[in-house]
Design goal:
Elements (H helix, E strand, L loop, with lengths): L1 H14 L5 H14 L7 H12 L17
């Protein structure tokens, strides 16, 4: 249950635009690994798919490219 609570907090923070880019990458990697990206509202699946297509995150949820904030 602890990890689900952490994910819920991360989702709330993401929707409130309170996460840094590296935290967003980690969140989406977790959502992809767990399969949750495909069961949450459509935005999450579309964003996850875009990150995979752009080579930022692998299809298994591995972060492939670290982004450095400008």
């Amino acid at each position: 249950m602890g990890r689900m609570k952490d994910i819920a907090i991360d989702l709330i923070s993401y929707e409130a635009d309170e996460l840094e880019i590296d935290e967003i990458m980690d969140l989406f990697a977790t959502l992809i690994r767990s399969g949750m990206a495909w069961t949450l509202q459509g935005h999450y699946g579309r964003t996850a798919e875009a990150m995979i297509e752009q080579g930022l995150i692998g299809p298994e949820g591995d972060v492939l490219m670290e982004l450095i904030p400008a």
